[in-house]
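To: structure subgroup
Subject: Chain for Friday's discussion

All,

I'm putting the inputs and outputs inline so they're searchable in the archive.
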Amino acid sequence: MEYFKIVTTIFLAVIGWIVAHYFTSKRDISNKRREISIEHLVNAYRVLTNDVSHRKLNDDRKVALENLLSDIQLFGSVEQVAMAKSLADEVAAGGAFELDPLINSLKNDLRAQLKLEKVQGNVRWLRFEK
């Protein structure tokens, strides 16, 4: 009977370790995925707000816009992907494009993921002439 108790205890300990390891691995993968997504979306937000929006598009800014639209289509929400595609179509057609809806969507999503209070309204721009 003692032998059975020891084997049962060891068996339960091993099963517990395997289950804990499984859930820890899943949590770590989920956290890493979220971390990478947030990092790319924060970068896209910064490029949109600092390098592209309300500035004249030069070659460097065009490349930055191309890259951030790719990142948004990879890491963004379904709504943000649709906005990025629409923005790409508008830019390709040579038309005017509005960045505020995409910027606001990114801002709201990132603030929610980072558990920050929601902030209403568009970004306030400050641009200095060179």
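Points worth raising on Friday:
The mean pLDDT is 89.
Residues 2-52 form the longest helix (51 residues).

D.
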